[in-house]
Specification:
The complex is a heterodimer. By secondary structure, chain A is mostly helical. Chain A has helices at 6-15, 21-31, 46-114, 117-126, and strands spanning 137-139, 150-152. Chain B folds into two domains: 60-84 and 111-226, Penicillin-binding protein 2a (Domain 2), CATH 3.90.1310.10; 230-560, DD-peptidase/beta-lactamase superfamily (Beta-lactamase). In chain B, α9 (230-247) packs antiparallel against α18 (542-560) and α11 (298-307) packs across α17. The chains are: A mainly alpha, B alpha+beta. At the A-B interface, α3, α4 and β2 of A face α1, β3, α9, β16 and β22 of B.
C-alpha cells in the first residue's frame, strides 16, 4: 500500500538535486513559501527526537571523554617527566644535605675538641692565668634577707686553692686487723 | 573538493584515534606502574648483590650542657681491587702523590692477591674529595681504586669519662656497635636504623643515574644527654689523678651527685697502669666494682637507731677501746681508756666499739631492714651494663659476730655509687633518690625528650636526717674528716677505712685498705653529695687521702654551680637542671 501522493512527491523530489532532506525542505520553501511541502516535512515523534538527542549526546560525551583522556594522558606524561626531573633534583639535594650534615658533624666535633676543658685549662696556663689562692665571701648588710647573704666572689679552679690546713687531728695508727675504723 | 575534504577528515580521525589509543595505552601503563602495581614493584626484591647497606649515623652523646662527649663523623678509606690493577708500579707512583705514602709501600699493597685491599684509612672529607678528583682525572689507570666511607666515633674530650661513655666497634655493615658503657646500654637508641640503596641501572647493568635508588632511607640514631658536666668531670678526674699519683693508690673512684634529683654530675674512674701512670680505669668502677665500705657504712646503723628512738645524738655510752663478740676482737683505731661518749662523738671519731654497742641495742632485724631501705644489695636502677647490686649477707644466716662486723661496714659489699646514693638520702632529708646518668634523649628531629625521674622514696624521717646531718657535721668539724672541710661552707660527711678481703678465703689482705669519704654540702641545705674511694693508698685512712680530694672537688663544684655558702636565710641556688638548648635542638613539649 502506497499512501496517496507518495509517488508525486517522490517524482518531485527526484527532480531536485540530491542534497539531503534539509536541501529539499529549503528548495520547497523557496518555491512555495506559503505552502508546506506535502511529504517533505513530517511531524517527528518525541521518541525519534529523543533517540537523535541521545545519539548527539553520546557522540558529544564520547568526544569529551576522548578529549579528557588525551588531556589526562598529556598531563600524566608531563607530570611524570616533571616528577622524574624533580626526583633527580631531590636526590641531588638529599646528597648535598647529607654531605653538609657530615661536614656539620665534622665541624661540631672540631669545635668540641677546641672547647674541651683540658684545652681551655692548657690555654689559660699558657696565658699565665692562675686560680686565686683564696676565696673572699662578701656578707650581706641584712642577714635576715631572704636573698643569699653571702655571695661567692669570682674564683678559679679549686685545684689551685690551698688545701685546708691539716688540723690538730692526729692520724691514728692501726692497731688491729679485724676492725674497720675511720 | 568534497571528496578530498572527506578523506582528510577520515585521515585526521584515524590519526586522532591512533594517537588517543597510543596515549591511552601509555596512560594505562603509567597507571599500572605508578598506582596499580606500585606496591608490588617497590616490594620486588632487587638483585641482592647490587644492594648497598647505608649505615645510619650513630646518635651523639652530650653532657648536661649539650657539650659533645661522643659524636660520629664520616671518614673514608681508599680501597684497591688488586686483581684488576694492570700496572701496580704506575698506580703506586700516581697514588703516592695524592695519598702521601711511599711508592714502595703502595706497590707492595697493590700486588696482594686480593680484590679488596685497604690502602689508606681515616681520610677526612676534604682529603677524600681530593683523592676522588684525582681518581676521576686518571680513571684510565686508577680504575680499580675506589673510596669507601667508614664511620668514626670522635670523643672531643679524649678519654674523659670514657668508662662511663663506653666504647664502640665497627660492624661488618659499616656501622658502629656499642660494646661497653652507655654506648652498649643505649645501643638500640643510638644506632638508629640502617638504610638500603641500589644503583639505578638498565638490564645491561649499566648505571644511568649517578644517584642510587633509596630502597630504605637510613634513620639516624637518637642523641643522649647525660647528667655529666664535662668541666666538673675534668676537674674531678684531675684531682683524683693527683691523689692517685701522690698516694700510690691502685685505682680510685670519685662521684658528685645533685642531691635533689640524683643526677650524677661527675663520675671519675681512674687506675694506675703497670708503668705507674694514671689512666682511665678499664671499667666503670663506681658501678661495677664492689668493696667493703668500712665506717662510712655506719650511717645506716645510726639511721636505724635514731629513727627508732633507740638513741639521740646526745645519748651517752661508756665506750672501751675494744670489745669481744663470740671470741672475736673488735677494737677502735685508736687506743683510748674506757670513757663516756655521746652518740655524736662516737660517729665523729668513728668508734667501732661505740657503734657496735648501738647496733646491739638496735638489733640485727632493724639494721638489716635499713640496709635494704638504703638500697644496698639492689640495683640502683641507673641503667648501666655490668652494674653490681652488691653483696649482702642474708640476715637469717648472720654469724654470731655479724652484729659486730656488719654495722661497722664489714661483711657486706657495696658499690661506690650505692654508698653515694645512701649518703645522698641523708642529705636529701631522708628521701632516697635513685641515681641517674641520663638526663634526656634527642630525637632525629632535634627535639629533646627529658627522661622521667625514677620515683623517690622516704627511708628515714626528715628529723632523723637532720639529726644525723648534725652528727656528720661534727665528723668534719673535729672528727676523722677534718680534711674534707670546704672554706666558707658547712660540710657533713663520713670517713671509711676498710680492709680488703682475701680472694677465695676468709680473712683480709694484710696492709690493703679502701679509703673512703662521702659527704655533702652545704650541710644546712644540701645541694651536692660526693664520694671519693681510693683502692690501696699508701696512707690508708679515708680521712687522710680521700677527704682532701672531696674538699677540692666539692669546692670546685659549689663554685661551678654558684651555690652560696650555707647560713641563716641563705638558701643555695638551684643547680641549673635545664640548660640552654643549642640551636637545632628544641625541648619537647614546647
Amino acid at each position: 500500500m502506497t499512501p496517496p501522493g507518495a509517488s508525486s512527491a517522490r517524482a518531485r523530489s527526484s527532480q531536485l538535486p540530491a542534497k539531503g532532506p534539509g536541501a529539499i525542505r529549503g528548495a520547497e520553501a523557496q518555491r512555495h513559501p506559503s505552502v508546506a511541502p506535502a511529504g517533505a516535512l513530517r511531524v517527528v515523534g518525541p521518541e525519534e527526537l529523543k533517540a537523535r538527542t541521545r545519539l548527539r549526546r553520546a557522540r558529544a560525551t564520547l568526544a569529551a571523554a576522548l578529549l579528557l583522556v588525551v588531556i589526562a594522558c598529556f598531563v600524566a606524561v608531563i607530570s611524570h617527566a616533571v616528577l622524574g626531573s624533580r626526583q633527580l633534583e631531590l636526590d641531588n639535594m638529599k646528597a648535598s644535605a647529607a654531605s653538609e650534615a657530615a661536614l656539620s658533624r665534622n665541624l661540631a666535633a672540631r669545635v668540641g675538641q677546641l672547647a674541651t676543658p683540658a684545652r681551655l685549662v692548657q690555654g689559660a696556663g699558657r696565658l699565665g692565668m692562675v686560680a686565686p689562692r683564696s676565696v673572699t665571701y662578701i656578707g650581706s648588710a641584712n642577714p635576715s634577707s631572704s636573698r643569699p647573704k653571702a655571695v661567692l666572689a669570682p674564683t678559679g679552679s679549686a685545684r689551685a686553692h690551698r688545701k685546708p690546713a691539716r688540723s690538730s687531728f692526729s692520724k691514728p695508727t692501726k692497731t688491729g686487723s679485724s676492725s674497720a675504723g675511720h | 573538493m568534497d571528496r578530498r575534504l572527506g578523506a582528510q577528515r577520515k585521515r585526521s580521525a584515524i590519526l586522532f584515534f591512533v594517537t588517543v589509543i597510543a596515549l591511552a595505552a601509555l596512560f594505562l601503563q603509567l597507571l599500572r606502574v605508578q598506582v596499580l602495581d606500585a606496591s608490588r614493584i617497590v616490594a620486588a626484591k632487587w638483585p641482592p648483590e647490587r644492594e648497598t647497606v647505608v649505615p645510619a649515623t650513630r646518635g651523639t652523646i652530650y653532657d648536661r650542657n649539650f657539650n659533645l662527649l661522643a659524636v660520629s663523623v664520616k671518614r673514608f678509606m681508599v680501597i684497591s681491587d688488586d686483581l684488576n690493577v694492570a700496572n701496580p708500579l704506575q698506580v703506586a707512583g700516581l697514588l703516592s702523590r695524592v695519598l702521601g705514602m711511599s711508592s714502595q709501600s703502595l706497590d707492595s699493597l697493590l700486588t696482594e692477591p686480593s680484590g679488596y685491599v685497604v690502602l689508606k684509612r681515616m681520610l677526612d672529607q676534604a682529603q677524600a674529595s681530593k683523592v676522588q678528583k684525582f681518581i676521576y682525572k686518571h680513571v684510565g689507570v686508577l680504575g680499580a681504586i675506589t673510596l669507601q666511607s667508614e664511620p668514626l666515633r670522635v670523643l672531643p674530650n679524649g678519654n674523659l669519662a670514657a668508662p662511663v661513655i663506653g666504647t664502640v666497634s665497627a660492624t661488618s655493615a659499616g656501622g658502629l656497635r656499642g660494646v661497653s658503657g652507655l654506648e652498649y646500654e643505649y645501643q638500640k637508641l643510638l644506632s638508629g636504623r640502617s638504610g638500603l640503596d641500589a644503583p639505578q641501572e638498565r638490564p645491561s647493568a649499566a648505571t644511568f643515574f649517578s644517584t642510587p635508588v633509596v630502597l630504605r632511607a637510613p634513620v639516624p640514631g637518637d642523641g643522649l644527654v647525660l647528667t655529666i658536666d664535662d668541666a666538673l668531670q675534668f676537674e674531678v678526674e684531675h684531682q683524683l689523678a693527683l691523689e692517685l699519683a701522690s698516694s700510690g693508690a691502685v685505682s680510685g673512684t670519685a662521684a658528685i651527685m645533685d642531691t635533689r634529683t640524683g643526677a650524677i654530675l661527675a663520675l671519675a674512674n681512674l687506675a694506675r697502669s703497670p708503668d705507674g701512670t694514671v689512666v682511665e680505669a678499664p671499667s666503670n668502677l663506681g658501678l661495677t666494682a664492689v668493696y667493703e665500705p668500712g665506717s662510712v657504712f655506719k650511717i645506716v646503723t645510726f639511721s636505724a637507731a635514731l629513727q627508732n628512738h633507740i638513741i639521740t645524738p646526745q645519748s651517752t655510752f661508756i665506750v672501751p677501746d675494744h670489745v669481744v663478740i663470740d671470741g672475736s676482737l673488735f677494737h677502735d683505731a685508736e687506743v683510748h681508756p674506757t670513757q663516756p661518749m655521746t652518740a655524736t662523738h662516737i660517729i665523729a671519731v668513728s668508734s667501732n666499739v661505740g657503734t657496735i654497742h648501738i647496733a646491739q641495742l638496735t638489733g640485727k632485724t632493724l639494721i638489716s631492714r635499713y640496709i635494704n631501705a638504703f638500697g644496698f644489695g639492689q640495683y640502683t636502677g641507673i641503667g648501666f651494663p655490668g652494674e653490681s647490686p652488691g653483696l649482702l649477707v642474708n640476715p637469717n644466716r648472720w654469724s654470731p659476730t655479724a652484729i659486730g662486723s656488719t654495722p661497722i661496714g664489714q661483711d657486706d659489699a657495696v658499690t661506690p655509687v650505692q654508698m653515694l646514693a645512701a649518703m645522698n638520702a641523708v642529705a636529701n632529708g631522708g628521701v632516697f633518690v635513685p641515681p641517674r646518668l641520663v638526663r634526656a634523649t634527642v630525637g632525629p628531629n632535634g627535639r629533646v625528650y627529658p627522661v622521667k625521674l625514677a620515683p623517690a622514696r622516704r627511708i628515714i624521717s626528715a628529723s632523723t636526717a637532720e639529726e644525723l646531718t648534725g652528727m656528720l657535721e661534727k665528723v668534719v668539724q673535729y672528727g676523722t674528716g677534718v680534711h674534707a672541710v670546704v672554706p666558707g661552707y658547712q660540710v657533713a660527711g663520713k670517713t671509711g677505712t676498710a680492709q680488703i678481703p682475701l680472694h677465695g678465703s676468709h680473712g683480709y689482705q694484710p696492709g690493703a685498705f679502701m679509703a673512703t669519704f662521702a659527704g655533702f654540702a652545704p650541710a644546712g641545705r644540701p645541694a651536692l653529695t660526693a664520694i671519693v674511694v681510693l683502692n690501696r693508698p699508701n696512707d690508708i685512712y679515708g680521712g687522710a687521702v680521700s677527704a682532701p680530694v672531696f674538699s677540692n672537688i666539692m669546692q670546685y663544684a659549689l663554685h661551678l654551680f654558684r651555690i652560696a655558702p650555707s647560713g641563716a636565710g641563705s638558701p643555695p641556688r638551684r643547680i641549673r637542671v635545664v640548660q640552654d638548648i643549642p640551636p637545632g635542638l628544641t625541648a619537647a613539649g614546647g
